[in-house]
Amino acid sequence: MAQFLSKPFGMTPNGEKINEYIISNPGGLAVSVLNYGCIIKNIWVPTKRGPVDVVLGHDTYADYVKDFESSGSTCCGAFVGRYANRIENAVFNVGGKTYQLEANNGKNHLHGTFPRKLYEVKTFGDTLLLEAESPDGEDGFPGNLKISVRYILTEDNALRMDYRVSSDADTIINLTNHTYFNLDGGGDVLGQKLRIYASRYLEGNNETCPTGNILPVAGTPMDFRAGKPIGRDIDTGFSQTTMVGGGYDHCFVIDRGRGASQSLCAWASSDKTGISMKVYTTQPGVQLYTGNFLQDCPAPGKGGVPMQKYGGFALETQHFPCSPSRSSPPPPCGPGKCSVPPPPCGSSPANSAGSCKMQPSHSKPDGFA
After folding, report:
1. Of 3, 184, 248, 322, which residue is least crowded by CB atoms under 10 Å?
2. Does residue 16 have a pLDDT over 70?
3. What is the C-alpha to C-alpha distance for residues 326 and 329, in angstroms, rounded to an integer?
């Protein structure tokens, strides 16, 4: 059974309390979550040399605000939406209407305001429940949205993330978590190994929006199927990695068996700490981002140390970026039940689930290079 602790973390200018909630299991794994942005602030994994914090973050509420309100927000550890990743030209159609969104990433819309929201918190069993609302018109999206996020820590070291939303009007939704992992506990992640269970990826343009081409990873630096150090092919002159700052910021199409609702999409490990992590999701894609611009973060990282390029990697499980911008996006959900994916939803709930499972002792996936 998980244990819960809470303590003050700060206060908004309006006097609203920011709290930190720490969930721990009998095996020694502990997760720290803020009611600001549903941020995963820490994940401490037990090792023979003591607990290792394997996620990036900040030490103060003020530093998170400084980061998240900047033009180059890292969204470090946050729950992201209404639409994770990009919507090209910040415009989409649903229900026969055209909606213009806030253009917050050049001419495109990126992620949205969920990382800057305050959430009401409840705890029960092994679950931390965080709830909030997104009013009609926020960021330009239609519909009053009710949001429910559950973080569940299990005895076998799995952190499960379940998202549930409902809207009173046709809208679109694409949710993810934007935690940056560093399984070494510090330094860069270039020597850490990663396997992605994907035979194809979405080709991107110079604004990191998909071109519409779904390409094979075989024979390119995008191929993580056998597992390899993250830095092996990260900046070799390949146009797709060069144009996003000499790294990865791409959506991979997860290989999933017919009829499977959830599957393993990624496996990462550190030889230094012996920690490995598996990521599972119900989503069709996973965006690998290798922190190509973390060095531009205006707020210091933990311990006052500046963020560094390649200081962490994010595995953002999600529906494909720019889907609402395409000529044939998935149809919106109507009054009946719908689930995520696809991203649009109507007046009934949409659901999404995923989990990451930490292993304190090192274990290699089959064929890991």
Report:
1. 3
2. yes
3. 6
201: number of CA atoms within 13 Å, CB side?
Answer: 27
Confidence of residue 265 (pLDDT cuts 50, 70, 90): very high
Give the SS3 label for residue 113. Answer: coil
Q: Is 178 a catalytic residue?
A: yes
133 is catalytic: no
The CA distance from 289 to 294, in Å, is 10
From the candidates 20, 88, 138, 316, give the one annotated as an active-site residue.
Answer: 316
| Residue in 58, 109, 111, 178 annotated catalytic | 178
pLDDT at 222 over 70: yes
Contacts of 258 (CB under 8 A, 6+ apart): none
**What's the whole-number mean pLDDT along residues 74-87?**
94
Q: Which residue has the tokens 């996936």?
A: 365
β-bridge partners, 147:
132, 165
- Backbone torsions φ then ψ of 345, nearest 5 degrees: -145, 155
Q: Are 271 and 309 in contact (CB under 8 A)?
A: no
